[in-house]
Amino acid sequence: MSSINITFIIGIILALIGIRAGYKIGLTKGISHLVALIATLLTLMLILMLTASIHAGQSRNSIIAIIILVILGTVYGVVKFFLKSAHKVSELPLLHQLDKIAGILIGLMWIGMLYMVIIALSYRGFLGPFGTMVAEDVKNSEILTLINSYNIMMPK
Known about the structure:
By secondary structure, the protein is mainly α.
């Protein structure tokens, strides 16, 4: 008797949520959120580098981190300006509908990234019994195995 693959069912539900959320925010806002997330992660990484350099007494690395933070802030401001302009243009009637439909792809991409992170954490044993169940479900499903083959966070 085959068991129900809960991970696959959760994946389908998450995909539907991603489609709805992507349609709701649209492509331009979705890209804006993605750029903000990337900028936040880079800023966090640079701040950690800066504090480690200060504690280690490496003034050269501290100065480099500060310069990169300033450059990152400037580039983020320019990119944000262009994305805000693109969002205003996308509010035109025909473009608005195209933006919303294209936003579905962004929603699916976000859910796909979340799904791959959960699978990677499961395989590494960070999620305990839930992770073991997820890893087993992935092994038993051809579709999840195919999706997981594109997971760059998994060791090859």
